[in-house]
Amino acid sequence: MIRQTAIGMMLLAASGLSAADTVKIALTGPFSGGSAPMGVSARDGSKLAIAEINAAGGIQVGAKKMKIEIIERDDEAKNERGALIAQELAAMSDLSGVIGTVNTGVCMAGDKHLMEKGVTKIICPAAGSASMTQWSKAGVKDLSIFRFAAHDGIQAAMVVEEAINRKFTKVAVVFDSTNYGVSGRDDMLDQIKKQGNKLEVVAQEKFNIGDKDMTAQLLRAKSAGAQAILIWGIGPELAAVSNGMAKIGIKAPLIGGWTLSMSNFIDNAGKNGNGTLMPQTFIEEPITPKAKSFIDGYHKTYKVDRIPSPVAAAQGYDSVYLMAAAIKQAGSTDTKKIKEALEDLKEPVKGVIATWNHPFTKWDPADVTTHEAFRREQTVMGMVKDGKVVFGNDADRARLIKSATTATPAKTAAPKAKKK
Amino acid sequence: MNAAIIGQMAISGALMGLVYALIAYGFQLTYATSKSINFGQGELVMLSAFFSLTLTNLGLSQHWGLGLSYGLMVPGGLIFGAIMGLVVERAGVRLALEQKSEGWILLSIILGLFFFSAAENIWGRDDRPFPTPIPEEPFHVLGLAIGPREVAVAVGVLGIMGLIELLKRKTLLGKAFEAVSADRDAAELMGISATRTVMLSYGLSGSVAALAGILVSPITTVGPTMASAIILKAFSVAVVAGLDSGFGVVLVGMFLGALESLASFYLGSGWREAPGLVLLILALALRPTGVFGKATIRKV
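Output (structure tokens, whole complex):
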């Protein structure tokens, strides 16, 4: 697989595309394994946007139009492979930017190589808080890493809010043992405290990647009297939890991170998954003409009738347009200039999720939201219903239609909310 | 903790433990006739599960309905398992045994790795759900929730083991099997082909592996790594019970399964695998022939 890609790339390089005429953008992520639905969707969503841009002649860079050339790398969701790929990409002198990474652990292992060389990267769709807070903790002054995903801070806030709104008082916090799961647990516990300790955490249960039998963890949660299960993990194990809940008769809803919309959760959990709630940035429903053409385009191009991870696909699509807008504004393929343009995008960018008006600002180590595009208002509650993710409530649908047609408020004056 | 939870964990664990028992039984079958076992048995479980999944989906795409597709898939899967067992015997075991070498250990591991790669390339690395007409909603007995799929595992495991034991005792073929197990050279002198009997045992062992795959997949999903954890426990069961007691593997399998799930409840899920390993060490130290094994007298 990797060798095939490598050979393909060599052929592509040899077939006369001289480097000077193209903008090189790398797409990375897990294209195989348990995280693949997100990786593949993000990649394919990005490719859809790239195909559109190339079909229109490419990006206007200074005086000439340049097409985008894709460099694709499968990190298999493995931290060590992610680190190797990041090193390889950091060593490419003519690379304009990187879009991708699904797994927080892979971000933690690889992004430092890109950061050191100042390579512009838009993280999409890894949501773990740690992949951005690591830079503020390190006090990095100048950062070339951006994130285009509803980070776990927002998501955890919504999950806790949902549990409180549903009048639960006792919850179990369940999470996987990866960086993603553990940082998700911390975010949830943090949010429970912030939102006034209205929820009592009666059990904290951990599971490992590959676990199939969650009976022990769930029974402990049940016997402690948990009314709802707040969860952070990825598809296959989430499905095992959902199936385990059905088995031992826990009727409480499963509420957790956006990974509960992954196709391998929805398929493996079957009807046990119905009613599961998770924050989403994109719902596969043609609520706007732009969304319709994106969904139809994805279905047709990749011959599917359901996007494996609609959120990842839509984010991949929009992040390519943001990157392209930055390249155009910079008038250069130099990754450092693109970074500066991305921090100060003058024109709104029309995406499928929203119209992005100045999504990023100059990096401030005291405030990670300077490099985070998403806010609470671009995020909605999704719910699993008969094999698909639908809007958890109709007010959200109306709000999204509105935000897709009117530009989001500029965030030049980002509120400095975080107080220690 | 209350008794209901202990009961629940023990019964769930014990029913799953029967899967370990079934795979361990597959080791016993080949060990009896040839004193060899297939170290790639886990890959046979996985490969047969994938093949059966494909058969079921094929049936479903023909609009046969889930019940019929599943019903036709089971014999198909078992035959596939038997064929794969024969492939292992022919490619990995026979030559090594003829040369009286221990080469079958390495060869069966290599074949397993080969099957693993083949499955990854044919079916991909993702875990997939296995459709089954057996409902999932548990029923309650004395306050314990028991899933019909777990009951299906128990019925399937005990059923096929009973059938094979019956075959061994009542049919001529079975008597030949027992004769070769007892004394290969003497059996050959009586006109029983030892090679054929070993083939039979590998075929049966393959079918048993296939059934384990078919029974466990609706509970755990199908994926290339689905059997890697199960197979280690099956080894433990086979060693602890001894390599010649079918009754023993059932008891030890259920015991280990129950112990595991109780350990993961009381000690934390990270300790799930610990009791099996402790049991294995104890058995090797105290009773190397297995709790239910017969001490072999080696004539020098």
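Residues 177 and 197 of chain B are 6 Å apart (CA to CA).
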